[in-house]
Amino acid sequence: MTMHPTVRVIRDEHSTLSAVLRSIGLLLTESRRHGVEPDFQVLRAMLFYIDEFPERVHHTKETALLFPMLRRRSSELAVVLDRLDRDHAASHRAVLDLQHDVLALEMMSEAPHAKARLADFEAKMHAYIASYLDHIRVEEVDVLPLAESVLTVGDWAQLDEAFMQNRDPLTHRVGDDSFRPLFKRILMTLPAPLGLGSAMEALKASHPRS
Ligand SMILES: [Fe+2]
Ligand SMILES: [Fe+2]
């Protein structure tokens, strides 16, 4: 069976987002291991990306379209879908708080409590990454298979039309060029051993002239 365009878009966007999340975790772990401050500019660029695309567009399409459609066709995952909706509602706020924390770390790097503040931020960031990766795992393991078994041809046509629009520009060839300077900044400032992996590959594919 061929994969529905909607399922492909969701899975592709999840892999890009996972790559960015894992890169943030790696950046923090490596900086701590070397006893240096993490690169705040890169952190800010990656958090900005998460807020700008996955939070505003990817989550919105799931909560506004996919989940209500699933609820109409099956009651099987009602509790799970409620939890995922709560995650969507909370995580935009969480990423804004994390962006603020990065700013505070930069502005207050000379303050006496700077080291404790950095440790707090790292713990918060690692918790955010772990819960986000778990959220993605639940969608892929539980939600997408249910969608494939209960949604109708008409449902898929409606979803495919919506999901093929506003796709993640870091993932897809047909993207919004306004994101290009942001991705160049992430790529240029990220230390070489901490590459974005699949996200970098995706960028090269979508912007071969960069
Ligand atoms: Fe989600
Ligand atoms: Fe998702």
Number of strands: 0
What level of helicity do the residues show?
over 70%
Overall pLDDT: 83
Tell me the structural class: mainly alpha
- Helix-strand sequence: HHHHHHH
- Beta content: under 5%
Q: State the major sheet.
A: none
Characterize the overall form.
elongated
- Molecules bound to protein: fe (ii) ion
Radius of gyration, in angstroms, nearest whole number: 18 Å
Low-confidence stretches: 191-203
Tell me the distance between the termini. 36 Å
Number of H/I helices: 7
Q: Secondary-structure blueprint of this entry?
A:
Elements: H1 5-33, H2 40-73, H3 78-107, H4 114-150, H5 153-163, H6 180-189, H7 198-206
Helix pairs in contact: 1-2, 1-4, 1-5, 2-3, 2-5, 2-6, 3-4
Walk me through the structure.
With 210 residues, the chain is mostly helical. Helices cover 76% and strands 0% of the residues. The chain contains seven helices and no strands. α2 packs across α6. The longest helix is centred in the middle third of the chain and has 37 residues. The two termini are 36 Å apart. About 6% of the residues have low confidence. The structure holds fe (ii) ion (2 copies). One fe (ii) ion (FE2) binds next to α2, α3 and α4.
